[in-house]
Specification:
- Helices cover 25% and strands 26% of the residues.
- It has ten helices and 20 strands.
- The chain has helices at residues 2-8, 10-18, 40-49, 80-86, 105-115, 128-138, 147-159, 181-188, 302-309, 344-355; strands at 59-62, 66-69, 93-96, 119-121, 142-145, 171-174, 193-200, 204-208, 216-218, 223-227, 240-246, 253-262, 281-282, 287-288, 293-295, 298-300, 315-325, 328-337, 360-363, 374-376.
- The chain has an eight-stranded mixed β-sheet, sandwiched between helices.
- Strand 6, helix 8 (181-188) and strand 7 form a beta-alpha-beta unit.
- Helix 1 (2-8) packs across helix 2 and helix 7 crosses helix 8 (181-188).
- The longest helix is centred in the middle third of the chain and has 13 residues, at 147-159.
- The model has no long low-confidence stretch (mean pLDDT 92).
């Protein structure tokens, strides 16, 4: 298959040629370890320059803007594996609380739930009272979405007089933001099984909790590595970047760097913890290699923020400060303007339209001289 991929992707051909690999001679995936890690920007550029010879069911827009096509297939992102592990059974009704508008997360789990033999309640984000009512009326057994959003639904249910015994959701697969221990305990008082999963828009499912051991089990049909940030070489111990390979005809990934930091889970003797099939476990997501941070389940890059606001007349300086209160991300835009102009409304509308989230806007006399565009002040409880 690698030979076919090279024919369709000149950039992949160049990457292999640069390290002396003949695609017709590659019979072991480990031979690809010699290929340099591909960054997100490089992947986007490569896909934009290649002609897609397959029909995409959907095209998504991410901030930038970046346009990404959904690969064909009934479960192209392979999340059904994690859903089954969390407790999904054929015939279940599962509430999907990821967004369906422009971004891929809603479609990712929509296709996976259906492929797993269950029924989707396409709840999306918002209308929490109606979502809780629907979950009660339909006997929804499963939930997919942010852990903080599940907490918000539980709060709405509690305020309506619902008790944990009455709450119908029996399992939740949560992703796209951290799951601190105190939040996990709160959720498990209402939902018996809460499992964390990890993936990306490009790769889909990468790893997930299956309840057997600590950490997240690497998914099937995806090659997962933890690599030295400086050299790109796979490492067995210590922290590095998560790098994935998906050898498939449509939208393949060859040594794609996710930008996420992790490490392999090891036992007391320092040996990697594996299941009975030899699959390893990631300890979790420990941070990012670059400047981008995840806010309310979506990545925000300094470049995106600057592009969105740079042409506002009278704006001298700005920064975004991200904090967390009651398990929810809060965003504050602090700005300085010429002659103390009030730009609050203009900034609020621009942020909402260009970056797709709401932010409090505060005018200041000055900002710290060395302040970055994004200031992450969140503290994740142990």
């Amino acid at each position: 298959m690698l030979r076919d991929l090279v024919d369709d992707d000149p950039s992949l051909a160049a990457r292999l040629e640069a390290v002396g690999l003949d695609p017709s001679e590659v019979h072991d995936i480990r031979a690809l370890d010699a290929v340099p890690v591909q960054a997100k920007d490089e992947l986007v550029e490569a896909r934009q320059s290649n002609r897609r010879n397959w029909t995409a069911p959907r095209i998504f827009q991410s901030p930038g803007p970046i346009y990404e096509a959904q690969p064909p297939g009934e479960d192209p992102w392979r999340w059904a594996e994690a859903l089954h592990s969390a407790g999904l059974e054929p015939g279940d009704v599962v509430m999907n609380c990821f967004g369906y508008h422009l971004s891929p997360a809603g479609a990712m789990f929509d296709t996976a739930i259906i492929a797993a033999g269950a029924t989707v309640l396409p709840a999306g984000i918002g209308n929490q009272q109606l979502q809780v009512q629907a979950s009660m009326d339909l006997g929804v057994r499963g939930y997919v979405g942010l852990p903080s959003y599940l907490k918000a639904l539980i709060d709405v249910a509690r305020q309506a007089g619902t008790t944990p015994a009455d709450f119908p959701i029996r399992y939740a697969l949560v992703t796209a933001e951290p799951l601190p221990d105190d939040l996990r305990r709160t959720l498990e008082e209402w939902v018996p099984v809460v499992r964390m999963a990890y993936g990306s828009a490009e790769a889909g499912l990468i790893a997930y909790e299956n309840g057997a051991e600590a950490g997240m089990l690497e998914g099937e049909a995806v090659d997962v590595q933890v690599c030295d940030i400086a050299t790109g070489k796979p490492i067995r111990h210590g922290e590095g970047e998560v790098v994935v390979t998906l050898v498939r005809k449509e939208a393949p990934l060859i040594r794609f760097g996710t930008g996420d930091l992790s490490a392999w889970l090891t036992d007391e003797q320092g040996q990697q913890v594996v299941d009975d099939r030899g699959r390893r476990r990631l300890v979790g997501i420990l941070g990012r290699t670059g400047q981008a941070i995840k806010v309310r389940g979506m990545f925000l890059h300094p470049r995106q923020a600057t592009t969105a606001l740079q042409d506002i007349e009278g704006l001298v300086a700005f920064r975004f400060v991200i904090t967390r209160r009651e398990h929810r991300d809060e965003v504050r835009c602090e700005y300085v303007s010429e002659a103390a102009q009030d730009l609050g409304q203009v900034l609020s509308e621009r942020i909402r339209n260009a970056l797709r989230f709401n932010a409090e806007v505060h005018q200041l006399a000055e900002l710290p001289a060395d302040s970055p565009v994004l200031v992450d002040e969140r503290i994740w409880d142990e």
